[in-house]
Amino acid sequence: MEKVTVSADALKEVLTALNGPAHYIRELQALRDPPFGSDNPINILCAEYNGAVDKHNDTAVHVARLTADFERECADTDRLLQTGMGWTSDRTRTDGGSLKVDELAEAMRAMMAPGSGG
After folding, report:
1. Helix and strand element counts for the chain (H, E)
2. pLDDT tens for residues 57-101?
3. What is the pTM of this model?
4. Helix ranges, 31-100 (H)
5. For the range 64-73, what are the long-range contacts, defined as Cβ-Cβ under 8 Å and sequence gap of 24 or more?
6. Looking at the chain, which runs of residues are DSSP E strands?
7. Helix or strand run (H / E) with residue 108
8. Which helix (H) or strand (E) holds 30?
9. Rounded to the nearest 5 degrees, what angle is found at the Cα of 5, between the Cα atoms of 36 and 24?
Protein backbone atom coordinates (compact mmCIF):
# COMPACT_ATOMS: atom_id res chain seq x y z
CA MET A 1 0.00 0.00 0.00
CA GLU A 2 1.65 3.21 -1.15
CA LYS A 3 -1.14 5.78 -0.98
CA VAL A 4 -4.05 6.49 1.33
CA THR A 5 -6.99 8.75 0.64
CA VAL A 6 -7.67 11.13 3.52
CA SER A 7 -9.87 14.16 4.18
CA ALA A 8 -8.39 17.28 2.65
CA ASP A 9 -9.74 19.54 5.42
CA ALA A 10 -8.25 17.41 8.20
CA LEU A 11 -4.92 17.17 6.40
CA LYS A 12 -4.88 20.92 5.81
CA GLU A 13 -5.54 21.61 9.51
CA VAL A 14 -2.75 19.30 10.64
CA LEU A 15 -0.26 20.63 8.09
CA THR A 16 -1.14 24.22 8.99
CA ALA A 17 -0.59 23.39 12.66
CA LEU A 18 2.71 21.65 11.93
CA ASN A 19 3.97 24.59 9.89
CA GLY A 20 2.71 27.22 12.32
CA PRO A 21 3.73 28.15 15.83
CA ALA A 22 4.39 25.13 18.10
CA HIS A 23 1.28 25.77 20.18
CA TYR A 24 -0.99 25.06 17.15
CA ILE A 25 -0.05 21.39 16.94
CA ARG A 26 0.03 21.12 20.75
CA GLU A 27 -3.57 22.35 20.86
CA LEU A 28 -4.65 19.71 18.34
CA GLN A 29 -2.83 17.05 20.36
CA ALA A 30 -4.35 18.23 23.64
CA LEU A 31 -7.87 18.18 22.20
CA ARG A 32 -7.73 14.64 20.80
CA ASP A 33 -9.46 12.95 23.72
CA PRO A 34 -13.17 13.13 24.61
CA PRO A 35 -15.16 15.24 24.93
CA PHE A 36 -13.25 17.32 22.35
CA GLY A 37 -11.76 14.65 20.09
CA SER A 38 -14.65 13.53 17.87
CA ASP A 39 -13.86 15.92 15.03
CA ASN A 40 -10.18 16.48 15.79
CA PRO A 41 -8.24 16.42 12.50
CA ILE A 42 -5.51 14.22 13.97
CA ASN A 43 -8.12 11.64 14.98
CA ILE A 44 -9.77 11.88 11.57
CA LEU A 45 -6.48 11.25 9.74
CA CYS A 46 -5.55 8.39 12.07
CA ALA A 47 -8.95 6.74 11.60
CA GLU A 48 -8.77 7.10 7.82
CA TYR A 49 -5.23 5.71 7.72
CA ASN A 50 -6.12 2.77 10.00
CA GLY A 51 -9.23 2.07 7.91
CA ALA A 52 -7.14 2.00 4.73
CA VAL A 53 -4.62 -0.39 6.32
CA ASP A 54 -7.41 -2.68 7.50
CA LYS A 55 -9.01 -2.65 4.06
CA HIS A 56 -5.64 -3.33 2.41
CA ASN A 57 -4.93 -6.22 4.79
CA ASP A 58 -8.44 -7.64 4.31
CA THR A 59 -7.98 -7.43 0.55
CA ALA A 60 -4.56 -9.12 0.71
CA VAL A 61 -5.97 -11.94 2.85
CA HIS A 62 -8.93 -12.33 0.48
CA VAL A 63 -6.65 -12.46 -2.58
CA ALA A 64 -4.43 -15.05 -0.87
CA ARG A 65 -7.47 -17.19 -0.07
CA LEU A 66 -8.80 -16.91 -3.62
CA THR A 67 -5.40 -17.83 -5.02
CA ALA A 68 -5.16 -20.86 -2.74
CA ASP A 69 -8.72 -21.91 -3.67
CA PHE A 70 -7.92 -21.50 -7.37
CA GLU A 71 -4.75 -23.58 -7.05
CA ARG A 72 -6.68 -26.31 -5.22
CA GLU A 73 -9.36 -26.34 -7.91
CA CYS A 74 -6.73 -26.49 -10.64
CA ALA A 75 -4.98 -29.33 -8.84
CA ASP A 76 -8.29 -31.20 -8.71
CA THR A 77 -8.75 -30.61 -12.44
CA ASP A 78 -5.19 -31.78 -13.06
CA ARG A 79 -5.87 -35.01 -11.18
CA LEU A 80 -9.11 -35.55 -13.07
CA LEU A 81 -7.44 -35.09 -16.44
CA GLN A 82 -4.35 -37.09 -15.54
CA THR A 83 -5.93 -40.01 -13.71
CA GLY A 84 -9.60 -40.13 -14.66
CA MET A 85 -9.15 -39.42 -18.35
CA GLY A 86 -5.62 -40.69 -18.90
CA TRP A 87 -4.30 -37.37 -20.22
CA THR A 88 -0.79 -36.27 -19.35
CA SER A 89 0.97 -33.02 -20.05
CA ASP A 90 4.31 -32.95 -21.79
CA ARG A 91 5.00 -29.70 -19.93
CA THR A 92 5.17 -30.90 -16.34
CA ARG A 93 5.64 -28.10 -13.87
CA THR A 94 8.08 -28.60 -11.03
CA ASP A 95 6.88 -25.74 -8.81
CA GLY A 96 3.98 -27.70 -7.33
CA GLY A 97 1.48 -25.56 -9.24
CA SER A 98 -1.32 -26.61 -11.46
CA LEU A 99 -1.59 -26.90 -15.20
CA LYS A 100 -2.03 -23.68 -17.09
CA VAL A 101 -5.40 -22.83 -18.63
CA ASP A 102 -4.04 -23.23 -22.18
CA GLU A 103 -2.86 -26.73 -21.29
CA LEU A 104 -6.32 -27.58 -19.99
CA ALA A 105 -7.90 -26.23 -23.18
CA GLU A 106 -5.42 -28.26 -25.23
CA ALA A 107 -6.33 -31.38 -23.29
CA MET A 108 -10.03 -30.78 -23.80
CA ARG A 109 -9.54 -30.20 -27.54
CA ALA A 110 -7.49 -33.42 -27.78
CA MET A 111 -10.18 -35.39 -25.96
CA MET A 112 -12.94 -33.96 -28.17
CA ALA A 113 -11.08 -34.52 -31.45
CA PRO A 114 -12.55 -37.13 -33.82
CA GLY A 115 -11.16 -40.58 -33.12
CA SER A 116 -10.02 -39.73 -29.62
CA GLY A 117 -12.84 -41.59 -27.95
CA GLY A 118 -13.87 -38.44 -25.99
Report:
1. 4, 0
2. 888 777 778 877 777 777 766 666 666 666 665 555 445 555 566
3. 0.54
4. 41-79
5. 71/97, 71/98
6. none
7. helix 101-112
8. helix 22-30
9. 35
